[in-house]
Amino acid sequence: MDLAHLWFWIVGILFIGYFVLDGFDFGVGMSLPFLAKDDVGRRQIINTIGPVWDLNETWVIVAGACLFAAFPEWYATLFSGFYLALLLIILALILRGVSFEYRHQRDSLRWKAGFDTMIVVGSAVPALLWGVAFANIVQGVPMDAHHNFTGTLLTLLNPYGLLGGLTTLLLFFTHGIYFVALKTDGEVREKARRLATRSGILTVVVAAAFLLWTIVMTADKGAPLLGLTIACAVVAAVALIVSVMANLRGREGWAFADGAVTVAFAVLTLWTALYPFVMPSSTDLAHSLTIENASSTPYTLTIMSWAALVFLPLAMGYQAWTYWVFRRRVSRSRIEKAVAAGAH
């Protein structure tokens, strides 16, 4: 395997890490209106991701930087053609980050309610649009001979793209609720378990339709990794069903772990379906970007490979250590004591 193909898979792994980690952050944010009846409950939910949400979000920065360095042609076409969609994602992430930091700066319920709404919106918009974007990348978009995107934002809002967005929205929502159930106690935990069952069943139906459509579309294109695509889709489907069953039995840890496997293999399904292209053209397949014509020079990829070999394990080790330090449940009683003491 040459370095260009290696970096295609490394970039895929980085996006898998981002969607698994920031995916449940999105789900936790979207769950606020459904699981919390008062400010203490909302603080309990938000505090489950308080120590880790910004660390989870750095994965997309690393993935984008590696995409820029390893595949500059792909980066240029993607970020220029999907400019409005990506701008909406960035604005939503900014709103969410600001809300986490500022909602506790005043005791006004109206103030907090406004920022809570921003958390919900700032979580739902990226959860939807990331799915729309990646579904369109796999399906193919109109491009000219110079690899310029010739469509509009409405071009991306096609049936397959919207189904992909709905799938990621529901996957992240359910994945996040599993995490809330795993990290909280009392009424919030029980509500999360009940809601995860309902959302999980709906997610199974929608995700199955999207994965089946992806397999059929990939087969029609004669993709070289069709067998692997089917295998990844089957693993994702089985893991999703198992996660729902684990949640029904009150095994929050297993439900969350299986949810992570579901997200990882769902993204891997799209990545294997995309190979050997990085951005196929729906106008003329000859206009497509492939791993070969979109990659950087071998020298650049060599330097990147040595840097990744050194720094990627360190980053993953640090993140694993952070999760270990903040592994305890966030109890309602602890939040109530903090409120009584006047702490934020």
Automatic annotation (TrEMBL):
Highest taxon of the lineage: Bacteria
Keywords from the named record: Cell membrane, Electron transport, Heme, Iron, Membrane, Metal-binding, Transmembrane, Transmembrane helix, Transport
Principal location class: membrane
Database matches in InterPro entries: Cyt-d_oxidase_su2
Regions crossing the membrane: 6-36, 81-98, 119-139, 159-181, 201-219, 225-248, 260-279, 299-326
Protein name from the UniProt record: Cytochrome d ubiquinol oxidase subunit II
Species of origin: Microbacterium candidum
Compartment list: Cell membrane
UniProt record similarity statement: Belongs to the cytochrome ubiquinol oxidase subunit 2 family.
Bilayer topology term: Multi-pass membrane protein
Keyword Electron transport: yes
